[in-house]
Write a structure and sequence with these properties.
This protein is α/β, with parallel strands linked by helices. It has two domains: 6-218, 3-Layer(aba) Sandwich (Rossmann fold), CATH 3.40.50.720; 223-377, Orthogonal Bundle (N-(1-d-carboxylethyl)-l-norvaline Dehydrogenase, domain 2). The protein has 14 helices and twelve strands. It has helices spanning 13-25, 40-46, 72-75, 100-104, 126-133, 184-197, 203-209, 220-244, 255-275, 293-306, 313-319, 330-340, 345-355, 362-377; strands at residues 6-9, 31-34, 51-54, 62-64, 68-70, 90-93, 116-119, 143-149, 152-157, 160-165, 169-173, 215-217. The strands form two sheets. Strands 5-2-1-6-7-8-11-12 form an eight-stranded mixed β-sheet, with helices on both faces. It has a four-stranded mixed β-sheet with strand order 4-3-10-9, with helices on one face. α1 (13-25) links the parallel β1 (6-9) and β2 (31-34). α8 (220-244) packs antiparallel against α9. It holds the Pfam family ApbA. Residues 175-199 are annotated as: Disordered. It is an enzyme of class 1 (oxidoreductase).
Length: 378
């Protein structure tokens, strides 16, 4: 059985959760943690070179050891070094979206056509960005996968987490079409690559075997639909929590805020439907189904209610003065809308407000939306 190492890039809460359960389910599978800074080595030593995971109701926390670690100093070339670091066949990327390309650049030469790269991140557009900046040669680029996790996990230390809420992990291939006039030979290469990466014994199989991750394999089409559902919720809830400085439940706490949600859904819905394969207009196949504006609004409200006490990651980042992922959420909607010839001035306005750390009242945001819409129509 294939026991090629699985590398984890990004040791935030989700990265640690995946690493922990991989070792728990399959102790013989090598797991390598890729640190983005050498300072984490001291934290790792203080943690006993282990990841600790607690699950409410299951007694004492459990610790897993046996990980290999790489830090930037390990990857720097040294005079007289005996051998380069090995190729990476299996890579889980759990960094913030905006850090992905920079974090992967030092690993670029270790990734190739036989590599699988699983993106466990918010937002969309990372795979396209990697293809445009790092892996421009279609024949030699790695296979992209994406995962959507609904597990609840929070950190209690640099290498300790609490798995507070169970939820599925949906995994599927991401197909990046950067050549609309793809030849038959290109399609054949893609099919051959698909067969290689879908073979038993790959990283994906290890993840599916990790019962506590509740992973399930989806077709590329079903994965894209799931990504767009999550994008819709993130694009409507997260930026408004950042602008209003509120918890998730409060994005619909007043009639004015509910109207803002409706305005965002009315603008974002056609883009989502177009990305699913419809034209985004009133006659496309998804207009009256799962991706109708009414269903999308109801789904966003349900997410906001279920996660009502949460502070969104976008608001947390904004309050801490960190870069947010708004470019890969509302920014992605705006950029794809422009490519499709659809208007998205409200999404663009929210991107600008979040980036400038603006706070506003409901009336001020409605006024901004109105101005943006008039400018777009002129």
């Amino acid at each position: 059985m294939d026991r090629a190492p699985i590398y984890i890039l990004g040791v935030g809460n989700l990265g640690k959760l995946v690493a922990y359960y991989l070792r728990k389910q399959s102790p013989t599978t090598p797991v390598t943690l890729l640190f983005h800074r050498d300072g984490l080595l001291s934290d790792w030593a203080a943690a006993g070179q282990a990841i600790e995971c607690a699950t409410p109701g299951n007694g004492a926390a459990d610790r897993r050891t046996g990980f290999v670690v790489e830090a930037p100093s390990h990857r720097a070339p040294a005079p007289g070094a005996p051998a380069p670091l090995p190729p990476i066949k299996n890579l889980v990327v759990a960094t913030k979206t905006y850090m992905t390309a920079a974090a992967l650049r030092p690993l670029e030469h270790r990734l190739g056509r036989d590599s699988n790269v699983l993106l466990l991140q918010n937002g969309m557009g990372t795979a396209e960005e990697l293809s445009a900046t790092l892996f421009t040669d279609r024949a030699s680029r790695p296979a992209y996968w994406a995962g959507i996790s609904s597990a609840g996990v929070y950190g209690t230390g640099p290498f300790s987490i609490v798995h507070a809420g169970r939820g599925p992990l949906t995994i599927g291939r991401v197909l990046v079409d950067d050549n609309d006039d793809e030849s038959d030979s290109g399609e054949q290469q893609q099919q051959q690559q698909q067969q290689r990466h879908d073979a038993p014994g790959t990283m994906i199989q290890r993840l599916l075997e990790a019962r506590d991750l509740e992973a399930a394999l989806a077709t590329p089409q079903r994965l894209r639909a799931a990504q767009l559902r999550k994008l819709m919720a993130n694009a409507t809830i997260n930026p408004l929590t950042a602008v209003f400085g509120c918890r998730n439940r409060d994005v619909f706490a007043t009639p004015a805020r509910l109207e803002l949600l409706r305005l965002l859904v009315a603008e974002t819905g056609p883009v989502v439907r177009a990305l699913l394969g419809g034209g985004g207009g009133p006659d496309d196949n998804n207009h009256d189904g799962e991706f109708s504006d009414e269903r999308l609004l109801a789904a966003a409200l349900l997410v906001a209610e279920r996660t009502g006490g949460n502070v969104s990651s976008m608001l947390q980042d904004a309050r801490a003065g960190r870069e947010t992922e708004v470019d890969y959420i509302n920014g992605y909607v705006a950029s794809r809308a422009a490519a499709l010839g659809l208007p998205a001035p409200r999404n663009a306005a929210l991107v600008a407000m979040v980036k400038r750390r603006e706070t506003a009242t409901e009336d001020e945001v409605i006024e901004r939306f109105t101005r943006a819409g008039l400018a777009s129509a002129s």
